[in-house]
Amino acid sequence: xxxxxxxxxxxxxxxxxxxxxxxxxxxxxxxxxxxxxxxxxxxxxxxxxxxxxxxxxxxxxxxxxxxxxxxxxxxxxxxxxxxxxxxxxxxxxxxxxxxxxxxxxxxxxxxxxxxxxxxxxxxxx
Length: 125
What we know:
By secondary structure, this protein is of the alpha/beta class. It has helices at residues 36-48, 67-87, and strands at residues 3-4, 16-19, 52-60, 95-99, 116-124.
């Protein structure tokens, strides 16, 4: 699966962008302030691409927690991102979220790169 930077992601179904520099409080879904510039890039991207009809915000953990906790944490974090987008004027109807826990590690368990937010384009006009 090819993963892109948000402004380089092709506007097509199934394309996935990794959002870099989104930080949460440890073991919590509270978005840290230093994440806002990156989240605002996503807001700008969505506003610039009205052909996008549906996206999924996917939350992923570092893989060090048990399955139940990882799944809940990643889901709550993805939901926090969706709430941020809605508060910035993005139409809630195009947004969905899902927590993947530690299902899709992209490095060895514990590596910070695993703890990420991905944006998947689900539907394009």
